Amino acid sequence: MLYPLKMIPYFRHGEETPWGGRALGDYFGKDIPDDRTGESLEISALPGRESAVANGPLAGLTLTEVIGKWGKDLTGDVEGFPLLLKLLDARDMLSVQVHPDDAYAGAHENGKLGKTEAWLVIAAERGAKLVYGVNAETSEQLRALVGAGKLEENLRWVGVQPGDVLYIPHGCVHALGGGIVIYEIQQSSDVTYRFWDWGRVGGDGRPRALHTEAALDVSRPELKLDKLPGATLIATGGSRTAYISDANFELWRLNVAGDMPLEAGRMLLLTSLGEAGVKWEGGSFALNPGESCLVPAAMRGVALAGRTAVMCATVPDRPALREALGYRAELVAGLTGDI
Question: I need a surface site. Which of 29, 231, 269, 322 has the fewest CB within 10 A?
Answer without folding.
Answer: 29
